[in-house]
Amino acid sequence: MTAQRPLPPGQHVFPSFDRFGLGVYAKRFPTRLDDAEIRVDGDVAQSLILGQQLEQLPRYEQVSDFHCVTTWSVLDQRWRGFSFRDFYHHLVEPLAEPQEGVKYVVLRGQDGYACCMELADLLADNVMLAEQLNGEPLGIAHGAPLRLVAPAHYGYKNIKHISGMSFVRDRSRYRFPLPYPNFMDHPRGRVAQEERAKLFPNWFIRPLYKLLMPSARNQHRKALEKYLALHGDK
Ligand SMILES: Nc1nc2c(c(=O)[nH]1)N[C@H]1C(S)=C(S)[C@@H](COP(=O)(O)O)O[C@H]1N2
Ligand SMILES: [Mo]
């Protein structure tokens, strides 16, 4: 396969797109799979839950590559959903009224995972909240019922099973999910700039993460097989 887009520094192509994440999340699954609901709070005039309103937003498709910080990439994934920008301008701004100076968004998943991104990065053209992958509804593996797709950012910012977003002025109260060290969380996490982690240089982080990747992949595969045997993909 020839890449449509140049492969970012330190990445290699992986042949299949498999469920992945930090080890502790391997056995945690979402409980609400039907209709997506997003709790919006933080430095806003009105905290609220957006559910049915999401149906109003226009849907579109994008094809993009997906890059995990542990160095594997999958190419040409076709996502369908609505844009974060539409979500923000048509629902969050008028209904929740973020305060002046809101600069960060803490995104939460139903499995307890959380990550933090800059609002300006989320408002980029290609950032979407996806409901489908390659023509199928998102399965349990890839973030059902709704996941963030931010192709310019490492996988660990592309939150699955999204359940909440806090719009905040200051990110100091946010911490990378325990028991993982905070250095794993780069405040931006952009792929092209190779913003993998804090404090440590990429010549150190790349081989370290490559070493940890197979066991995280295995844990996720085994837990998924067990889950699917019990519940199926719905
Ligand atoms: N809710 C949630 N989102 C998550 C994770 C997770 O464990 N839980 N893992 C992240 C990481 S590290 C990666 S690489 C991608 C993997 O996405 P996939 O399971 O669709 O391959 O999801 C990201 N989003
Ligand atoms: Mo990742």
Distance separating the two termini: 32 Å
Mean pLDDT: 96
| Percent range for β-strand residues | 25-35%
Structural class assignment: alpha+beta
Query: Using only CA atoms, what is the Rg?
Result: 17 Å
Q: Uncertain segments of ≥5 residues (pLDDT<50)? A: none
Largest pleated sheet: 6 strands, mixed
Give the number of helices.
3
Question: What is bound: which ligands?
Answer: the ligand Nc1nc2c(c(=O)[nH]1)N[C@H]1C(S)=C(S)[C@@H](COP(=O)(O)O)O[C@H]1N2, molybdenum atom
Number of DSSP-assigned strands:
11
The proportion of residues forming helix, as a percent range, comes to: 10-25%
SSE ordering = EEEEEHEEHEEEEH
Taken from the alpha-carbon principal axes, the silhouette is globular
Provide an overview of this structure.
This protein has 234 residues and is an alpha+beta fold. Helices cover 20% and strands 25% of the residues. Strand 4 and strand 5 form a beta hairpin. The structure holds the ligand Nc1nc2c(c(=O)[nH]1)N[C@H]1C(S)=C(S)[C@@H](COP(=O)(O)O)O[C@H]1N2 and molybdenum atom. Molybdenum atom is lined by residues 20, 68-70, 155-156. Ligand MTE is lined by residues 17-22, 25, 68, 109, 111, 113, 141-143, 155-156, 158-161.
